[in-house]
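Predict both folds.
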Amino acid sequence: MSDAADRGVGGAPPRPISLVRADGAYLVDDRGRRYLDIGATHGAGSLGAANPEVARALADQARDLIYLGTGYSNPVRTAFVERLLGLLPPSFGRVFLSNSGTEAVEAGIKFARSSTGRPKVVAAMRGFHGRTLGALSATWRPELRAPFEPLVPGFVHVPFNDPAALEAAVDETTALVLLEPVQGEGGVHVATPEYLRAARAVTEARGALLAFDEVQTGIARTGRLFAFQRSGVVPDLLLLAKSLAGGVPIGATVTTDEVARRFRGSHHSTFGGNPLACAAGLAALDFTVRERLAERAERLGAVAFDRLRALPPDRVREVRGLGLLLGIELRERVLPVLAELESRGFLAISAGATVLRLLPPLTVPEAAWADALSAVVEVVSRGG
């Protein structure tokens, strides 16, 4: 364990292994042991944690221009934004680039409040949107919020997948309804198409905006390039990060032209849209589309659901998810299961105290994925 890890502030305690490089879907520690990433990169490593095409794009760009402020045009930024918009419905016309998912959410909240002139934000229970004050105010989990209260006022939380509760909460003061198509941190709960359609209907009826937080689900993770495509519901704002640039820090708040036209005030990011991140993003999008990773996630997710049917109901309450975002809700705490999987060479993560979350790279070899699923079934079946 490194001294740098020991001196961190505020985060989770580091695991007692030091990972130094990536080899495809594998992470390698300082002793040369290989671990299959089935969640360790939190979805940001969708192309592997050291994708060669992303690395080459970074190196090429670094020789030309590492940093440029947003006050000047840059061809790689323009190309990245145009590539991203080209993958989205034509109603989206503007992109604000930042450095993380929580920044993408913060920008979305500001854009919604400014463009509507309204204060209220409606979000869902169990939802997670980030840890800065605005994004944390939209996040429901009390244990994350309590140490930093009072938070930003004007946020209301309603039960997830409950159209009636959502309709009751949205009124003439509501600027934004902020939802995740799949609640990743909240336990891998999938929004029903009916719920998302209800959200679209009530926001249009009341003059509010609808935002989908696809920080974790975006860029092929759920079997579509964007999870909202499964329901056919198109939001007014789309919030992206994590795998958008192949693991390089980036955030994107995508809006309609109408939202941008009505925006008053200013919002800025010194490093947002920097050439390095945009070069990585362009390479990552090209790789994702060319390799048909959305279709691959759909297929390997189906393999997983089929294999996980072998899990005994006396140990597992439910298996949930879409594509290669999977949650296994246990009838016991998940930490022993994570530890046992790690000892076998598989790095997974939790989604709450009792949910095992699987987020492998979308490039995971099929044989390695089959081995991981066999290990999960064995460890869960007998207990961590």
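Second protein follows, with its predicted structure tokens after the sequence.
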Amino acid sequence: MREELKNRVNGSKTQREELVEKRGEIILQTPSMILKWIKCIPEDKKLNIICLDNKELRSLTADDYELSGDIMQLYIPNRPRKKAKKGRFKYVAHQLARMINKETSDETNIFRQYTSIIFFAVGECGLCAVNIPEYLEENRTIRIVTIATPFFGTQMADREFVKSKTGFFERIKEYVKLSEIYHLPDEELAEHAEILLKVDDEVLKRHRWFNVISSSEQISEFAHKVFGTDLSDGIVPIDSQNPESENVDRTIYITASHEDALLKTIEYFNKAVSEKALLQPIVDFRG
């Protein structure tokens, strides 16, 4: 089975053309991640990789994303590789980087042809994306868009904290639902985990990093009770979404819930590209 998956990723041009015809084809599936095609055009040089932490979003199509270039979708399964020495986010990042690297990948590897690779990483997937550069070769650069990412954890991942803020029946009804969608509770996402401190800042400087901070007043009463008066997107407080890193090229503020943040971000980027806004000097943007 592993050999078959390897052949798919390192496939010949003929195999790649076959994948073009199979929308949603899974090209790699391991205990730590699932990677599949959403849109694939032969000889395209731009690749968008959508990294999701919400399983319900996996049903979205290329039309929903409205992105130029090829599109892949990455999903990190619930509780993948918990015993990985450096943590699961670095583990997945290492796997992805090995496929993207030109020098270490086979000449027929489908990633080699891309001159532009952009990661749109939602929630906890952003913690994976910012670790990818640590394992990339110097001649391989990427763009990273982290969206509503809990760089310093979230109270929603702390079961005891949630218990102290809400009633029994609310926890049973709401928290079980959130647990299924967002992999909660999760000790690696507990508040003040300071996950970003494990990232190699020097390596990040070679790449372009956009960070999207999302907040909304339209969140559930349950979320309001957990977060109190703090602003959040319903899952992650805005303070936790700010990595406080000098390597962030641009900070973008949007009004959206955690579920809507991805499509709102893509909408912003499409508008910014059409207006050539991203070609202007890098400054904080609030909109």
